[in-house]
Amino acid sequence: MASTQESDEKRQIGGELIIPALALGFTLYYISTVIDSPWSAQLNAFMVGTVLIALVLMFFLVAARAVLRGEATLGASNLLAPYHILPKRLGFIALSLGYLIAIEWLGFTLTTFLFMTGSMFLLGGGKRPLAYLSAAAVMAAIALVVFVILFQKRFPAGPIEHLVRALS
Amino acid sequence: METSFAFFVDLFLHSLSLWWVIIPSIFLGFIVGAIPGFSAANTIIILLPFTLVMDVEVGLVFMVSLYCASRMGAGIPAILVNIPGTAGAAATPLDGYPMVKKGQGQQALSISFTSSTMGGLLTTVIALASMPLLARVGFYMHSVEMVVVMLFGISLIATIASKDTLKGLIAGFFGLMIGSIGADHVYATPRGTMGFLELYDGVPLIPALVGLFAISEAFLVIEGESILSEHSKDKLQTGTWHQTFEGVRITLKRWWQVTWTSLIGLIIGVTPGAGAAIAAFVAYQQSRTFSKTPELYGTGHPEGLIAPESANNGVTAGTLIPLLVLGIPGGATAAIMLVVMQYQGVNTGPRLFMEQPELGYGIFMAMFTTYFLMAFTILPLSRYMSRVTLVSTTYMSPLIIGFTLIGSFVPREYMFDMYLAFAFGVLGYIARKTGYHVAAILIGVILGPLLERYMLVALQKSDGSFLTLFSSTLGNILWVALFASLLLPVFMKHRQKRRETVFAEGEG
């Protein structure tokens, strides 16, 4: 028990390694795309990229030393905590991604309404269904009027946009 | 016609008589400025058919008023919900949003409106008084000087990094690397585009802005019932007009800061190709450097809000100077104004001020009148607007995600931009949860491509010699100022520490 508490108190740096890892991966990829290019295309890759690689390697060394000395672990609690919100957060992120995928099939207005309603149910725990439905309907209607009808932005069309077009 | 004091008074009174155009334009500009993805430029484009059939004077007053109000409107979501409406407002949430979290939303909005109004009024007066002189600034700012100006903005990364140097620098350089995505400026070689044609023009700013700030914020705030703590909620709910007046008082007390940061905006605005985002970052960085309380920046310090808001409104007057005096549009909105003026047969350049001084000077006077009227129409709204932050996160988070994703689609109408905003949102969420500053990433994304462009031009002119960066007198003065502004805080901190040690030893 005591050892568990001790490991909980250690700094968890697993999450902190994600951004440097992404930065390193992207920089190496970027350099690979300009390796055969003229110097003007390579300028940033070498001016910025080399410094970034050095910084990331330095960060990895500092992190490795902390882990080897037992001052830190590779846990990712700072990224995931608080754990009781985690299912809601993952659900919300999934719904946001779902919104982007569904908008091409169901159209802008209907998808916006469904996304708003679904997210409010998820985050609010379904306590006030009528309020969620009304808020989502008002927001979707405002979005339709402002962006599609008034400013004529070419959002993906669905049944509601087709209906509006047929009526106008 | 003689440009006497009486002439300007007449112009002001004439502009006031156009209140029926200015006030609706203020509210329209205010709304489009606050919606991410919309800007004065694309609203004016949409309304171009109306502008072209209007009387030339009314059309220009409409465009100028809308332009000024949109600049101020962009600060509202940046302060209240951490969503900068435009790149020019990207530095606004650095201190604006922490003020909101402390329950000082009303005061923050009041500070933003007052400093924007003061900055706008002041720079318009300076522009009117010294137009020919300011118009020459553009001639002196070549690629070498612009490289140093960009570095002024980018040096804010080092300031942000001072809290956790390694993480701050990694975030900033990662941003610079992301900003390098796209075809190179000389041979159009695609770099780091991952095969996406949509990235050939570089990373679009709106998806990056809304993703890093707003979407990541929406994923974060669901941890609580509201974005405010209980204490901050009580403070906001019991708020009176006093908070608005307090915001005005705080800003008026810092009139000198408003003056010099708005001048930074004016000078950068006059320079073609520069913009409000650069002005805001440079002003924020310089303001922090010369502040007596730099450690409070980023924690909800009024000075950190005054600097970018004064500067980005200072840009507004600056952008119009090259257009009217030289006939060179300094930005997208100015370019559309040029189209309208040419369509109406109005000459730009020195002839405008000789043949139609009422129109030439009248445009700046309309800008002055707009800022003057905004003080009375917009400032009182701060009390009611700040209540937005009381909305539960159950409603707020889906709204933020929905409207910012829509906002990222609007400028280019690519579905890809919505996915990009989402990707930046996830990146921003990871960064914030693990202690990386998203503002540092954003500074890199915004200023990185500009730095590269000016650097390339400078190097090409000198056959690749880096010594060219130190070849101009103005450039060298700017280099000295840059190093001084970076070293001065270190020196001051060191001196203060030494004094404290001496004092402690004396006490002992």
The helix content of chain B is over 70%
Distance between the first and last residues' Cα of chain B: 74 Å
Number of helices of chain B: 26
Number of folding domains of chain A? 2
Q: What's the main sheet of chain A like?
A: 2 strands, parallel
Biggest protein-protein contact in the assembly: A-B, 64 and 62 residues
Integer average pLDDT of chain A: 88
Note the overall shape of chain A: flat
Distance between the termini of chain A: 70 Å
Give the beta-strand count of chain A.
2
Which structural class do the helices and strands of chain A define?
mainly alpha
The domain tally of chain B reads 2
* Low-pLDDT stretches of chain B: none
Shape label of chain B: globular
List the secondary-structure elements of chain A in sequence, H or E: HEHHHEHHHHH
The percentage of residues in β strands of chain A lies in under 5%
Arrangement of strands in the largest sheet of chain A: 1-2
Question: What is the ordering of alpha helices and beta strands of chain B?
Answer: HHHHHHHHHHHHEEHHHHHHHHHHHHHH
Largest sheet of chain B: 2 strands, antiparallel
